[in-house]
Amino acid sequence: MSSSPATIALDAMGGDNGPESVISGAALVLKKHPNLRFQIFGDEARIWPFLDKYPELKAVSSVIHTDKMIRSDEKPSAALRSSKGSSMRMAIESVKEGHAMAVVSAGNTGALMALAKMVLKPLAGIHRPAIASIFPTMKGETIVLDLGANVLVDAENLVQFAVLGSIFAKVHMSLSVPSIGLLNVGSEDVKGPDHVRGAAAILSEIDFPGHYHGFVEGDDITKGTVDVVVSDGYAGNIALKAAEGVGNLAEHLFKKHMLGDPLGILGAMIAFFSLKRLKKNIDPRRYNGGVFLGLNGLCVKSHGGCDALAFSSAVGLAAELCEQNYIERVARHIENLMEQESFLSRDL
Amino acid sequence: MSSSPATIALDAMGGDNGPESVISGAALVLKKHPNLRFQIFGDEARIWPFLDKYPELKAVSSVIHTDKMIRSDEKPSAALRSSKGSSMRMAIESVKEGHAMAVVSAGNTGALMALAKMVLKPLAGIHRPAIASIFPTMKGETIVLDLGANVLVDAENLVQFAVLGSIFAKVHMSLSVPSIGLLNVGSEDVKGPDHVRGAAAILSEIDFPGHYHGFVEGDDITKGTVDVVVSDGYAGNIALKAAEGVGNLAEHLFKKHMLGDPLGILGAMIAFFSLKRLKKNIDPRRYNGGVFLGLNGLCVKSHGGCDALAFSSAVGLAAELCEQNYIERVARHIENLMEQESFLSRDL
Predict the structure, then answer these.
(1) Among A154, A175, B96, B190, which is least packed, fewest CB within 10 Å?
(2) How many CB atoms are located within 10 Å of the residue A176 CB?
(3) Rounded distance between C-alpha atoms, residue B324 and residue B337, angstroms
(4) What is the reported pLDDT for B1?
(5) Do residue A185 and residue B238 have CB atoms under 8 angstroms apart?
(6) Over the stretch B243-262, which tens digit does the pLDDT of each residue have?
């Protein structure tokens, strides 16, 4: 844990619910992480009324006013050009200037990623940043990255993702040596695209802060076969969305069939607490937060439609990564990686 | 519908449950498709006892004896070398020789795919075959291909998959103009790998037996946004497995929480019929069957752990594709595709 309190910059204007979810979410996080401080960027006329409701949060927060915000439907390229002075950009710049350690926004994903890359810049030695998220599994939780920052990557990028994910797993799951799997179409050595097989060859040889398990398949994510699943952003994004889709379908069908007749409703009422526990167990709000890893500063994307609880999950991720010095630890391991012959000698 | 009865070749020795599931499954299919005939390949000493139970099936089936079978854990390359005279290979060869129109096996997937490609050969003009399956969605069903026959494909291959999938949708869902989406990481035109964007450009121009909808994302599969989702085998396989994984997780958690306390159990008992309908709605056995499309003959892979109901779904797919002349229709459309300037003029 770092001794000085961590400050988190919040874009209050991102997301469908604006300052309300952001501020109520931050108040929730403060209960678990009482040493945090916040900078809240956005329209102060809309921020203060909510902040006044949470005196403890108010005491550790500063509000930085701006009228300008990036709309969620703006194209990232257009948003980037007109981003100066917007709540999202100002929050990111605060991390760049060292006033905050992390930024959390529920705003436009493409704009956030582009701005974070442009303003924060990749860590020395990192070629591509990645987006990581936490999935519920049969055994607990698994971290998956990249979920869409980069469609095309090479073997070396995937190896760096394995380092980024390993430190994340150490922080989030308190593991000493997290196991790492490469997402592929089969577990045999000969299968899959070149960049995935190339990464497997490197990970089998190098010294990095995790244990290389081998290839894993799409269903290994929820089986919890490994602690970290590493993928390019193409397959990773498609797997994430396909998984979300099945979750939504299951919920839809459950409601349709259970709540579609009187006995179903009665059964659901009697099993109320069981269903509540089930819902809590797989509540997507508990897993909200895509963390951009590999930049000079932490940036967490919250789902746009988040409520306070969901936003608090995203801020909670930022808080634990800040408090456990994620960036410094990654920087050290990437430096170590870049010095290893088995990583460097490859013609990638 | 073809006037002469279709014959389906069954590999009785594939799958964990061997001839029992295969024969009971075939008997189930015969009720819906009374014009079918079967050739059953495998150990007759194990086949006859089951066949004797189903006089109607027995009346339209011939048994072709062989002692030899391909084990499910054999490497495809090794299985291929020693495949001669095996039940799987003999069943495929029967399609090649015109004795049967389709082959169904629950055996070794890699061996089945390799043997089917080698023995049946791709249809004229088809560069790569694909594996297609049916997914349940919010609106009904969606066909997804390729689920893993080819990791790497080019734009032209994806366009051919769109043709293969369109005709499948016409047959299975009785649609006149099925809608086709390309699986990608976002719906904007500029996103995604070259082969996916290239296929989008061609599909927007050519005349083919479907309507090109545009890019779709992973969650569009279960949303039912389009009738056919086209992907390379890398992303398609990972999406399929990730989806299966979430389904398994949902079932696991439901049982854990509902059946973990007395009120949950009571609720589940009262809601028994609702839950039964729910289960039927998403029963993976109803969606069992990966169809190899694009070969000179139909080959359907059933899940290895299938029971009779699951195997009957795979055979049912083979039956409807045979009865509606899938292969002839695809051949005609591929010929038409190859004559179109907007397809051929591309440097692919």
Answers:
(1) B190
(2) 6
(3) 21
(4) 43
(5) yes
(6) 989 888 888 888 887 787 77
Claim to verify: residue A224 and residue A154 sit in the same structural domain: yes
Which amino acid is residue A114, in one-letter code? Answer: A
How far B53 CA lies from chain A's nearest CA (Å)?
Answer: 36
Of B151, B257, B274, the CB nearest to A258: B274
Give yes or no: residues A136 and A282 share one domain: yes
Q: Is residue B147 part of a domain?
A: yes
Residues B114 and B183 in one domain: no
- Do both A253 and A159 map to the same domain? yes
Residue range B66-96, pLDDT digits in tens:
999 998 888 888 888 889 999 999 999 999 9
- How far apart (Å, rounded) are the C-alpha atoms in residues A9 and B51? 71
Q: Do B135 and B283 sit in the same domain of this protein? A: yes
pLDDT of residue B348: 43
Judgement on whether residues B142 and B201 belong to the same structural domain of the protein: yes
* Contact residues, chain B, for A234 at CB < 8 Å: 185, 192-193, 235
Q: What is the ipTM of this complex?
A: 0.86
Looking at chain A from residue 288 to 307, which residues have their Cβ under 8 Å from any Cβ of chain B?
none
Each residue's pLDDT tens digit, B102-159: 999 999 988 999 999 999 999 998 989 999 999 999 999 999 999 988 888 999 999 9
**Residue B46 within any structural domain of the chain:** yes
Q: How many domains does chain B have?
A: 2
Query: pLDDT (tens digit, 9 = 90+) per residue, B284-327?
Result: 788 888 999 999 999 999 988 889 999 999 999 999 999 999 99
Q: Is B193 exposed, middle or buried (0-12, 13-18, 19+ CB in 10 A)?
A: middle
Segment A298-305 mean pLDDT: 91
Residue A82 lies in a domain: yes
Residue with the larger pLDDT of the pair B1 and B166: B166
Subunit contact A222:B249, Cβ cutoff 8 A: yes
Which one-letter amino acid corresponds to residue A175?
L
With beta carbons under 8 A apart, name residues in chain B contacting A277. 257
Q: Using the beta-carbon criterion (under 8 Å), do A260 and B274 form an inter-chain contact?
A: yes
Residue in B185, B241, B245 nearest the CB of A234: B185
Query: Does B222 contact A249 at a Cβ distance shorter than 8 Å?
Result: yes
**SS3 of A45-108:** HHHHHHHCCCHHHHHCEEEEECCCCCCCCCCHHHHHHCCCCCHHHHHHHHHHCCCCCEEEECCC
Flag if A219 and B245 touch (Cβ within 8 Å).
Answer: yes
Residue ending a domain, among A293, A314, A337, is A293
Neighbours of A132 (CB within 10 A): 29
Q: How far apart are CA A336 and CA A338, in angstroms?
A: 6
Cα A94 to Cα B229: distance, rounded to the nearest angstrom: 43
Domain of B191 in residue numbering reads as 127-287
- Answer yes or no: is B21 within a domain: yes
Q: Between the CA atoms of B58, B62, B66 and B70, what dihedral angle is there, to the nearest 10 degrees?
A: -80
Task: Provide the pairing of β-strand A298-301 with A290-293.
Answer: antiparallel
Minimum-distance CB partner of A235 among B234, B243, B275: B234
Residue B289 half-sphere exposure toward CB, CA atoms < 13 A: 29
Q: Are residues A40 and A149 in the same domain?
A: no
The nearest alpha carbon in chain B to A149 belongs to B185
